[in-house]
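tool_call: predict_structure(chain=1)
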Amino acid sequence: MILNSMVGSEVSLGFFSNSSLFRWMNLGPFWVVQILAALSALGVAIFLNRLVQSESLLGGISNMPFFVISLLFFILPLEYNHPIFWIGCMFQILLIRQTLNIFSGEKISYEIFNQGLTIGGLGIFNPSFLAYYLISVRAMVLSARFDLKKALVVLVAMMIPLYFLNGFLYIIEEDLLFFSFSAIADWGFDDTFEFTKAVLLLIVMGIAFFQSRAQLSKATMREKRRWSLISLSILIGAFSILSFNYGYWLFTICVPVSIALARAILFIKNKWLAELYFILILGLIYLFKIDQ
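tool_result:
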């Protein structure tokens, strides 16, 4: 509090501010939080780069994911550009790696249990991540390793993080935390300006999604199976718009859209489409920063 009053700035947590779990994160010097956010974003960029190269998600060696995450760091509004946002993105990268490891068939019971733990942990931050259970099931189906027992193991593992968290909150006499979803009727944007930013994000996401899917026509079956999971995660993030404001689905789609956008930019051949990307990205930077 003393440091906070000296700096004269308080960091807003946006969609985390309503939870008692993250209340303490609202306090702190602005410059410290931004340095931590930058370091966390750098970690996300490095780990995402390693993931796409080790799993051959781009169809070639490239540092494009590093560039995309760096770009997102400057695009995101300050209320979401927080260390906890980027730590959540690291867990998304971990979840994607765990999901892709199911295809290898090694220690599959270990992988699906850990996957359930990761989904449950992400669900604490944003309940729409619970829909990632569908990705886990799809990965098991595509690898011909699905059975009811494994599906139940993932479900049980998803509940464990919430169970231990509420045990800790009960001990320190804080409000208990439960998975909850906003009603569709409550969805909306504060003004036309916010709506414009969301629409532009959707356009960029849509172009990246369809462009990356179109490039899979000559891909191997291994590539197509992996990209079907990335595509499903993007669709889950897009559908979360129906229940949450754009801050929530920014958190949901950040990593999968970064992968799709990196592939789309890497293999783009149409001059007009490349210019459209450039204009949209500049527009997003302008709209997200003009009101800060």
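agent: Residues 2-290 form one domain. Proceeding to next step.
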